[in-house]
Amino acid sequence: MVTIQPKVAAAGRYTVNQTCKLLGVSRSTLHRHTEAGKIHCGYRKSTLQKFYKGSEITKYWYAEA
């Protein structure tokens, strides 16, 4: 986990890879925390790809820091 708050747009959408880099966690850790409800994701309607909103990334960072 990174010690500096990630600079994200609150309404922005970030891919799984971008979210992992911003938070400094592995994909498996992000997946585990998503399954546990510590961070919430959305799904693109057209491709069903996961995304994380900037506000969720910030909220998760504060909770885990």
Describe this entry's structure for a reader.
The structure is a single chain. This protein has one domain (13-64): Multidrug-efflux Transporter Regulator, Chain: A, Domain 2 (Orthogonal Bundle). 43% of the residues lie in helices and 12% in strands. The chain has three helices and three strands; from the N terminus they run βααββα. The chain has a three-stranded antiparallel β-sheet with strand order 1-3-2.
Give a quick summary of the entry.
The chain has 65 residues and is of the alpha+beta class. The chain contains three helices and three strands. A hairpin with a 6-residue loop joins strand 2 and strand 3 (50-53).
Query: Looking at CATH, which topology would you report?
Result: Multidrug-efflux Transporter Regulator, Chain: A, Domain 2
Evaluate the radius of gyration: 11 Å
Helix content: 40-55%
What are the segments in which pLDDT stays under 50 over at least 5 consecutive residues? none
Strand order of the largest sheet: 1-3-2
What best-fitting shape do the alpha-carbon axes yield? globular
Give the termini distance in whole angstroms.
8 Å
State mean pLDDT (0 to 100 scale).
Answer: 96
Largest sheet: 3 strands, antiparallel
How much of the sequence is in beta strands? 5-15%
Strand tally is: 3
Number of helices: 3
Give me the strand/helix succession.
EHHEEH
Q: Tell me the number of structural domains.
A: 1
Q: State the name of the first-level CATH class.
A: Mainly Alpha
Structural class: alpha+beta
> What CATH architecture label applies?
Orthogonal Bundle
